[in-house]
Design a protein that fits this description.
Layout (H helix, E strand, L loop, with lengths): L3 H29 L3 H32 L19 H30 L6
Length: 122
């Protein structure tokens, strides 16, 4: 026969275990998946950046149309200096380099986070 203190303790322990299990499940879900608010922020950030890109493109096209009527001076060629690559070629190269660096940085950050917080065995 259980004494009142034992019954209270058992109920309290059961409630405590239930709360701890619920908290652990919530923490595990948060750790494994990004919260909805983070996803929403990401979508809004990308949308805002895309809108600003479009505004910049529109402004650049308008500027090019406005200055296209101005005379352009031919610059002399300097012997021994190779011609510079086109703007698109230089831009592609620069972004390819940035992509490579960002991928290397991402790999490093993931390896570092794994070393600092090893995955828990199931």
């Amino acid at each position: 026969m259980a004494t009142p203190n034992t019954a209270t303790r058992t109920t309290s322990e059961t409630a405590s275990k239930t709360v701890n299990e619920t908290v652990n499940e919530t923490v595990n879900e948060t750790v494994n998946e990004m919260p909805a608010i983070a996803q929403k922020f990401r979508e809004q950030l990308v949308s805002t950046v895309q809108q600003s890109h479009q505004l910049s493109l529109d402004a650049a096209q308008t500027w090019v149309k406005a200055v296209s009527v101005l005379p352009v001076m031919n610059l002399p060629k300097i012997p021994g200096i190779p011609a510079l690559p086109g703007v698109q070629t230089a831009t592609k190269y620069t972004f390819d380099l940035a992509t490579d660096l960002l991928n290397a940085q991402r790999d490093f950050a993931l390896q570092l986070s794994s070393a600092l917080a090893p995955a828990k065995e199931a």
